[in-house]
Design a protein that fits this description.
single chain; alpha+beta; PH-domain like; 2 domains; four-stranded antiparallel sheet; four-stranded mixed sheet; 5 helices; 42% helix
Length: 170
Amino acid sequence: MTDGDWTSIEGIDGTVVSYRERMTPPWPVWLVATALCASLSIAYGYRLGLLVGVITFIAIYATSVVLLWTTSPIVVVDDRGVRAGRARLPLVHVGRIAPLDAQHTRDALGVRADVRSFRCTRGWISTSVIIEVDDPADPHPTWVVSTRDGHAFASALAAARDQFRGPQGL
């Protein structure tokens, strides 16, 4: 597949998914959300009655669950590229890939980090993968993507990239 062929399908998800992860918050965040919703519903229920308190809890808790779930980015590796949240990187532009432990993730996101890097990270996930972008037109030289299983994500992406490039290597 040449670059000319690739541009016609760029931005479209592939059909064969080799890795998928939703970066949902950990259980303490859900517990705090529940406690805040309960606190608010108790206050309303005390003043306006039990029924109002229960309805308030259900409405606010449902809203917080939807917000926590829908704002959790999804990381996907498929046969056409990698997607982190709403951003997509075609396999043709994936360079070197390295899983990062917690310390290296802090370094990649810290004060000495490249400010041009694309980041799809969550503070509650301590590990990540760094992906080199092989596209001179792209303003982001690397991607730093949070993941709970860096080795699985990196190996799935490397396998998809190598399979896409084929034996001749593009």
